[in-house]
């Protein structure tokens, strides 16, 4: 019964996070503040659950994914200092994950997304060289995902998006070299 309660709470938190990502919320007035609030409430619930239930793989996974979503949201909103702190939290959450917490596929996707967010932060700050280095690592994670399953539509989408980001970063670096 306690196990079902924990899983139900995790499911509820996941629904909160899906709401944060909802497209209609993105365009609503005051949406940024609402999204940060919902995400903060989800994080609080997860931390309370972790302190009550102890060190469980489901909770470690949820905390890591929430940290990743938070960093992404902050970057989207150009809150760079907060995004940098959130990316540090992503690294801590990733370090807390154990090999059995995620499948190889989930781990590659998580790491690739974290690297892509670091690249985005560097690019936003005008550091194209660092951005390209992170993007190269993110691309290698996407390619590794495709080696596991060449029909993985999400991996192809990530690869295409990251190739476009790499092109943008390379263009910025060329402009810098010309200046």
Q: What report would you give on this structure?
A:
The protein has 179 residues and is mostly helical. The protein is 85% helix and 0% strand. The N and C termini lie far apart (65 Å). The relative contact order is 0.08. The mean pLDDT is 81.
Outline the fold blueprint:
Layout: H1 2-21, H2 23-27, H3 31-53, H4 57-76, H5 80-96, H6 104-124, H7 128-148, H8 153-178
> How large a portion of the residues is in β-strands, by DSSP E?
under 5%
Q: Summarize the helix and strand pattern as letters.
A: HHHHHHHH
Mean pLDDT across residues: 81
Distance between the termini: 65 Å
- Uncertain segments are none
Largest sheet: none
Envelope shape: globular
Descriptors:
mainly alpha, 85% helix, 179 residues, globular
């Amino acid at each position: 019964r306690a196990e079902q309660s924990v899983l139900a709470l995790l499911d509820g938190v996941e629904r909160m996070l899906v709401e944060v990502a909802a497209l209609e919320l993105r365009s609503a007035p005051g949406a940024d503040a609402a999204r940060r609030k919902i995400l903060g409430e989800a994080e609080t619930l997860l931390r309370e659950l972790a302190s009550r239930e102890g060190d469980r793989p489901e909770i470690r996974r949820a905390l890591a994914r929430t940290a990743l979503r938070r960093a992404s949201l902050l970057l989207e909103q150009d809150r760079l200092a907060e995004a940098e702190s959130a990316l540090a939290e992503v690294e801590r959450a990733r370090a807390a994950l154990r090999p059995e917490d995620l499948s190889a596929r989930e781990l590659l996707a998580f790491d690739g997304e974290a690297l892509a967010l670091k690249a985005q932060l560097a690019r936003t700050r005008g550091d194209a060289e660092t951005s390209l280095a992170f993007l190269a690592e993110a691309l290698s994670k996407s390619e590794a995902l495709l080696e596991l399953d060449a029909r993985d539509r999400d991996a192809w989408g990530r690869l295409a998006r990251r190739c476009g980001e790499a092109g943008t970063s390379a263009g910025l670096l060329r402009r810098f070299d010309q200046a």
